[in-house]
């Protein structure tokens, strides 16, 4: 609530200063805004330019590429090969128990 009050007081004082500046010296007040407007225009123009130097058209959607049947069959094969999340996967390696902190009584006798 307090921040909103400070914000609206600041906005109203800015509008009041703009109006009184326009009434006293129209061209002086407008000249203050010319540099930021030109800078904003240049930044906007640079943002809308692509690296190739052509401007993007905001209304046109990008062209969608239809994947080939070969690609779709590969994707379908990968999806079928994935297992259910509840099953465990079999890996080509196994965990070897370490002997750190174990006594000789726990070691197997077949060595």
Throw out a few tags for this protein.
single chain, elongated, 111 residues, 3 helices, 0% strand, mainly alpha
Summarize the structure.
With 111 residues, this protein is mainly α. It has helices at 2-24, 26-48, 69-81. It has a domain at 2-48.
Give a description of the structure:
The chain has 111 residues and is mostly helical. The chain has a domain at 2-48. 53% of the residues lie in helices and 0% in strands. Helix 1 packs across helix 2 (26-48). The model has no long low-confidence stretch (mean pLDDT 77).
- Radius of gyration, whole Å: 35 Å
Q: What low-confidence regions span 5 or more consecutive residues with pLDDT below 50?
A: none
Strand fraction band?
under 5%
H/E element sequence: HHH
Could you tell me how far the N terminus lies from the C terminus, measured between alpha carbons in angstroms?
78 Å
The main β sheet shows up as: none
Number of helices: 3
Kindly report the average pLDDT value.
77
Draw up the topology in text.
Elements: H1 2-24, H2 26-48, H3 69-81
Helix pairs in contact: 1-2
Transmembrane segments: 27-47
Protein name: DUF2207 domain-containing protein
Biased composition (Basic residues): 57-67
């Amino acid at each position: 609530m307090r921040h909103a009050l400070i914000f609206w007081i600041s906005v109203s004082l800015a509008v009041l200063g703009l109006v009184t500046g326009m009434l006293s010296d129209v061209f002086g007040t407008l000249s203050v805004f010319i540099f930021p407007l030109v800078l904003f225009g240049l930044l906007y123009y640079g943002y809308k330019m692509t690296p190739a130097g052509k401007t993007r058209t905001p209304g046109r959607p990008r062209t969608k590429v239809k994947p080939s049947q070969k690609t779709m069959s590969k994707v379908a094969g990968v999806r079928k090969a994935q297992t259910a999340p509840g099953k465990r996967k079999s890996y080509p390696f196994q965990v070897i128990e370490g002997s750190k902190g174990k006594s000789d009584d726990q070691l197997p006798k077949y060595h």
